[in-house]
Amino acid sequence: MKQLLSHYWPELLITIVIWAVIGWKMGLAAFFITAVLSLLEITLSADNAVVNSRILVKMSPFWQRLFMTAGILIAVFAVRFALPIGLVAAVTSLGWLDVFDLAINQPEIYGKYLHDIAPAINGFGGIFLFMVALFFFAESGREHLWLKWPEKALATLAAFPLAKYLVALLVFVPVFFITPFGDRERVVAALAAGAVTFLFLHTITVIMTGINKKNALKKQIGWAAFISFLYLEVLDASFSLDGVVGAFALTSNIVIIMAGLGIGALWVRTMTIYMVRRGTLLQYRYLESGAHWAIVCLSAIMFLKLAHIELPEIVVGSIGLVFIGSAVMASIRANRHDTEAVQ
């Protein structure tokens, strides 16, 4: 407990101060909604923190610090505020400043515009997250398999270079048919954009990592680290943009939304750093698998939203926690078994 407090006390302090200021200036109802949004963002992004740590552990200390400083500003102001405004401006006849004015002065109308472009957000985020999980499970030489049968089957895809791309392409078909006719064009465009974005960042990261290895560099620096940093920010956007749309179901006050989601973003990043420093992925061998199965489920949930099938937020958040918790427990049992075998 002392170790946890020593690491998380700044985030606890910031959270309490923001909640207190919101409650003092805007009332008890605003405080409650801010707290709910914060907790939802943290719960829904637990698997995000695990996947982030898998990428961040390969980066140099400088880029890890940048992830916690500039990365926080990007996550809060760029991903959760400016990017949705830009998306609304891109698909409407409104200018960027007009949409900004709506977000500040007429948030109800802005929330309606966001709801209208939600299918494109879910299409982009769904395929991006699906490919994150697919390329993880189809990785060659994975040492620890948690759910043995499906993970073994997916691992065989590594032997066939085009198999992963074909699987991703096949996802387009059912998603296309479950999407209402009026949304299909922009959802297909969003699917293509999400797939291309993932493949671009993944390919560049692999190339740059290979160059680092040839130069005997243990940690990513320079362009390799920069591309990984971009990958983390796009991954964060894939997780979070849907949350921005969902937040308007609770409130149309942009200050409350930014405060709640911003607190969540801060906690996700500090959880990532904690996992990197504590070597959590090494201690819990199946944790990565659990997080990526949670991502598969989140991707499926985003696709279901295209057919107007929406699960309660508590169910969505619980799915990720169940997978991660089960993977941790399985890791503990496996570690105990290894210890007993040695003795």
What's a quick, concise take on this entry?
83% of the residues lie in helices and 0% in strands. The chain is mainly alpha-helical and 343 residues long.
Main sheet properties:
none
Number of helical elements: 16
Structural class: mainly alpha
Low-confidence stretches: none
Total number of domains: 1
Helix % is over 70%
Could you tell me the radius of gyration in angstroms? 20 Å
Tell me, what's the shape? globular
Percentage beta strand: under 5%
What distance lies between the first and last C-alpha atoms, to the nearest angstrom?
29 Å
Tell me the series of helices and strands, N- to C-terminal.
HHHHHHHHHHHHHHHH
The whole-number mean of residue pLDDT values reads 83
Strand segment tally: 0
Features:
single chain; 343 residues; mainly alpha; 16 helices
Question: Care to describe what's here?
Answer:
The protein is mostly helical and 343 residues long. The chain has one domain (2-342). 83% of the residues lie in helices and 0% in strands. It has 16 helices and no strands. It has helices at residues 2-26, 28-44, 46-56, 61-68, 70-91, 96-105, 107-116, 118-137, 148-155, 163-178, 184-214, 222-247, 254-278, 280-283, 287-306, 313-342. The longest helix has 31 residues, at 184-214. The protein is globular and about 65 Å long. The two termini are 29 Å apart. The mean pLDDT is 83.
Present the secondary structure layout.
Elements: H1 2-26, H2 28-44, H3 46-56, H4 61-68, H5 70-91, H6 96-105, H7 107-116, H8 118-137, H9 148-155, H10 163-178, H11 184-214, H12 222-247, H13 254-278, H14 280-283, H15 287-306, H16 313-342
Helix pairs in contact: 1-2, 1-13, 2-13, 3-12, 3-13, 3-15, 5-6, 5-12, 5-13, 6-7, 8-11, 8-12, 8-15, 10-11, 11-12, 15-16
